Amino acid sequence: MLSALRSQTSGIITRILLGFLILSFAIWGVSGIFTGFNADTVAKVGPGEIDSNEFAVAYSDQVRQFSQQFGQVITPELSRTLGLSDRVLSQLISDELISVQAEQFGVGISIDKLRQMIQSIPQLQGANGFDRNRLDTILYQNQWTEAQFVDLIRQDEIRRQIQGGTVGGIKVPAVLSRAMQQLVGETRSISYLVLTPELAGEIAAPTDAELTAFMNDTRARWRTPEYRGLTILTAAVSDLADPAAVTAEEARAEYDRQTPRFVEPEKRQVAQILYQDQASAEAALARITAGESFDAVFASPGPNGAATSLGLVARSGFLDPAIADAAFALGAVGEVSPVVDGRFGYALVRVSEIVPEVVTPFESVEATIRGEIAASRARETVLDFYESIEDSRAGGQSFAEIGEALDLPVTVVPAVSRAGNGADGAPVTGLPEQTALLTAAFESDVGLENDPLSTSDGGYLWYEVTEVVPTRDQTLDEVREAVTTAWREQKTSEALVDRASSIAARINAGETMEAIAAELGITVSTATSLNRYGQATGLSNAARDNAFTGEAGHVAIAPGSATGTQLVLRVDAVTVPPPATPTEEEMASIGDEVATDIMQQYLAYLQTQYGVTVNQTLIDTIISTGLY
User: Do 178 and 581 touch, CB atoms closer than 8 A?
Assistant: First the structure.
């Protein structure tokens, strides 16, 4: 099925940052058996290879980006849920296929042309043209070397040339657009049965041989993560700040210095009637003076007037100082100002509500001010500590010795995984700057002297790796309970699929769904107006998709929306909308989808031509053991 392009963003840097989505598949139909290649090869793409380091770097970048986005460490389990490895692998395979094909075609780009392209990128332009500082900023933000950035630009241009030669200028006929509209607009109604795990029947207790075989088939699930022992020395502003050392006089002086900060200014609810000429404004004022209400004039200001409610605003919130002065000169609610010669015309102003100024007393904020002063002083002290600690480290002192000498906290972590869990599987609490710390620690090693990390409050932390506990395969006895649960879930799922298939065969043979439901003690559910691409309450995407694989009367099975359930569904009705003439925008959108589909088919063709083989075991090892 044609899939919509997920990005219409233009610009070289944006395309690189978002990834060239048209060349990326979610799932590749490639061999999972890996033989005959180097042990550090993740995938072989025709004559080219993707080595473990290339995959590890790309995967690490993806994990880091998602960690920053979510504000938490991305564990191997969460990574699998998000499909990060599939995302990375599919992009690398796409790039390698295009590179191989480009080499066959002789497609390339000269150094001079590449230099011109980089120097013309809009995001790199300053007041006087190309700005090297902007390039350095982008390299720093994305942790690229200059060579990596240049290669990304080169690859992007080659991909663009291959794509342009393959799908450039595609236009679709109106008949296809109408057919696509009907396809998208088609709806279906279904009846279905929800089979829960209880209907799978009794699952016999597994033997040790069965559990051992299951463990061998799912070995990566039972491998311990890599653990690291850490010693952490922290000079945090929060630890060094001493609000009690700030005197009341100092706090009062700071309060007086920042008086506006503690004052909620007077606000007024203001309405104005604005005229372009003074005569019209004077005439409107005369109407009010003669007894007509302001509201009446506000509702019918006349052809030259515009009535506006400015809302509840402070004096500083007005665009026109003259209107502000007039509004705050009114002595009481309901008063109307004389004609105001303002910035945008001649106005009448009325105040309908006055909210007095509120001053927060010193006593209410004294503790806050003391804390702020103390933190400010601590930030200056931190710099002194920084120099002292670096000098002590250079002199060979341990963190324990430095912490004792400077009265700074030293934290010893016997073992922590990349996910932040201890050897007992429970989260390790109290880790400062956990995401940044664990990312850096797992890129370091025992005996290495690491640069300090900045803390969120303006301080620093130093860390050293004291031990590396490598990943290992657990024995059956260590994880028997978990393995037994997982084995039972798999066997239950297999049995439930068999039960669902049997029920589907009975319905196809003429039995009614209602009779089978009564036999099982469950009910028949229905869903109407299902859309081919829309979400359906209570149904999984697989069930929705299977509902569109046959005509009325079609019976299918699919996983349910609840974990461990299966559905047996029957298509009751199919509704196809009448054809309609598509707009130019709709035809262009469908053209983009056709181009995307053709490009995906082209890549699939390249895959069959060159062959793609994946070492899934190595990928699982990289992800599970943190070898990135």
Answer: yes
